[in-house]
Amino acid sequence: MKIVRILTWLVMFTAVAGARTSAANEDARPWSERAANATIARWPNGRFVPADAHWAWNYELGTLLEGMDTVWLNSADPRYFNYIKSAVDQFVAPDGSISTLKPEENQLDNILLGRQLMLLYGVTQDARYAKAATQLYQQLLQQPRTASGGFWHKQRYPNQMWLDGLYMAEPFYAEYAATFHHPEAFDDITHQFVLLSQHARDAKTGLLYHGWDESKQERWADKQTGLSSQFWARAMGWQMMALVDTLAYYPGDNSGRKELIDQLQQEAAAIVRYQDGATGLWYQVFAKSGAPTDRSSSPGWKGGSGSRPYSGAPKRSFDSKPGGPSKRPFRREEGEGSLAPRPPRPDSGPGQRPAGKPGWKPKPSFGGKGKPGGSKSRPPFKSGPKSGGKRPGPFGKKRS
User: How far is residue 140's CA from residue 308's CA, in Å, rounded to a whole number?
Assistant: First the structure.
């Protein structure tokens, strides 16, 4: 009996030691890998809905896999590539058709996930991914446009251009054009950015309004300008990341390249003036942050608020936040080193307040800790494998 007890204790000790070693190894990984591992554990099939719920081609999955894509490129761990592949393969048939996609809706949101089709084609050279990507490219060629030539955000939003749409469509548009030799597309891509820069930019702040209705008919549109009422941090985040990710595919001699770089520098200079001095974060609605601060002597940029998508865009231009990291980490730990995002604070969309909370002042949805995030800006594939719900209410109330 004594020997049995000793063996039992040895087994238990080994198990506990192994668990601690595993947790320590996980702790030693970069935050990006830990977040990716937590994602795989939480959504092993690339589905973040209940098993019996409808699952369709969507931009949320595209956003998630963009992050997974970056982790794979940085780590060369095949688990991350396999996760991307299995998540996309749920939709792509052997003939290259995309199940659940409804081209007649003309949603720019549906274009984003096409970037993973390009990745999978570049790595595997499987023609079905190229065929699926071509369906999305054809949608862009047939997309309804405003009188000035801007893409409608979707069929049911006629004559409307949103900053979101630049991120959903233009990086894929540019990558497809670079890969399959459509140099004429870059003038059109540049035009999409130029239109919103010309019409949505506020001359006083340098910020961009979230949306522009060229017809000036939508209920949220200003009757003189067609603009929405708010500067929404998340929307500017989409736009800035669209610039960064699209620039990676521009020919060096294309005149639009300088235009996009100039826009990125202009946005970075504008947005840093609204960074909260105490936390290093940004309010989801910039108007809630009060007067802009003068950061010209020591510009800072730190990822972390509800506007995280833009946090790493100009990371080579700005240092981390003066004064150290944010006090509110973006994540919490669950069990043996696994991660989960902190629940967001109440937010009913730009320009609105949660029901039952009069006078509520928006706060950053998440904090940030450590280095700012970034964009992978992967080069276009030339040959062979490469290593290594509903959208929130967009615009708030009509401006007076």
Answer: 27
Task: Measure Cα distances from 274 to 205, 234, 281, 328 in Å.
Answer: 10, 13, 9, 18
Q: What is the pLDDT of residue 127?
A: 98
Residue 273 CA to residue 284 CA, distance in Å, equals 14
Q: Could you give the domains of the chain?
A: 2-341 (1.50.10.10)
Q: Give the model's confidence band at 371: pLDDT under 50 very low, under 70 low, under 90 confident, else very high.
A: very low
**Distance (Å, rounded) from C-alpha 98 to C-alpha 128?**
10
As a whole number of angstroms, the distance between CA 151 and CA 157 comes to: 10
Q: Tell me the C-alpha distance between 24 and 38, whole Å.
A: 15
Q: What is the pLDDT of residues 151-176, one digit of tens each?
A: 999 999 999 999 999 999 999 999 99
Gyration radius of the chain's alpha carbons: 23
Alpha-carbon span 348 to 131, nearest angstrom: 39
Burial class (CB in 10 A: 0-12, 13-18, 19+), 3: exposed
What is the sign, positive or negative, of the torsion defined by CA atoms of 341, 345, 349, 351?
A: negative
List own/partner pairs for 384-390 with CB under 8 A and 24 or more apart.
384/125, 385/122, 385/123, 385/124, 385/125, 386/119, 386/122, 386/123, 387/76, 388/72, 388/73, 388/74, 388/76, 389/60
Q: Which amino acids are annotated catalytic?
A: 164
* pLDDT band, very low/low/confident/very high, at 280 (cuts 50, 70, 90): confident
Helices (H), 90-184: 114-124, 127-142, 163-179
